[in-house]
Amino acid sequence: MPAKILIMPGSVRTGSYNVSLAQAANKVLAEMGAETTMISLGDYPLPLVDEDLKKDKGVPDNAIKLARQFAAHDGLFIASPEYNSSIPPLVKNALDWVSLAPKDIKAYSGLTVALGAASNGALGGIRGLYHLRSVLMNVGAQIVTEQAGISRAATAFGEDGLPTDERQRTLLEKTCRSLLDHLVEGRGRA
Prior knowledge:
By secondary structure, the protein is α/β, with parallel strands linked by helices. Helix 1 links the parallel strand 1 and strand 2 (about 35-40). A 5-stranded parallel beta sheet has the order 2-1-3-4-5, with helices on both faces. The protein has one domain (about 5-185): Flavodoxin domain (Rossmann fold). The protein has 6 helices and 5 strands.
């Protein structure tokens, strides 16, 4: 049975480099035999995390739907922008709401996550992945060591949707392979 991987770009911006990275990861993971599902956080609009709102109205339905998406998959690939060397608000807010979903959903328990970032900068957005890794480990997800940073992202992706730079393409492939290997070796949900 193939591993089920959820792919989540951390941007909803038109022309987002991280949507391009997510699409590239989707292609690579599918070619490696995974069953993939790509979502947009734009389909799960959420208010800012607010404990008073949670107390008065409960966890928003979209947070519960997103948590169920996490729980229905063996692994998760997040392609996240970097904002001021950290996590963008859209991603952080979504991850925080998912952590507040009812515990019986088990959104993070046993979930294996791979990280990538795409940016026009020379570092490819990887500075923000350190913070993202920390947040995900804190809520119980398992994070693979490899990560894909795509620099000069405005011109990084070819007609086939994959990075044209061999080193960046290899990084993406190694990150995807590590995610699947982690699941096959029995350290995740699969």
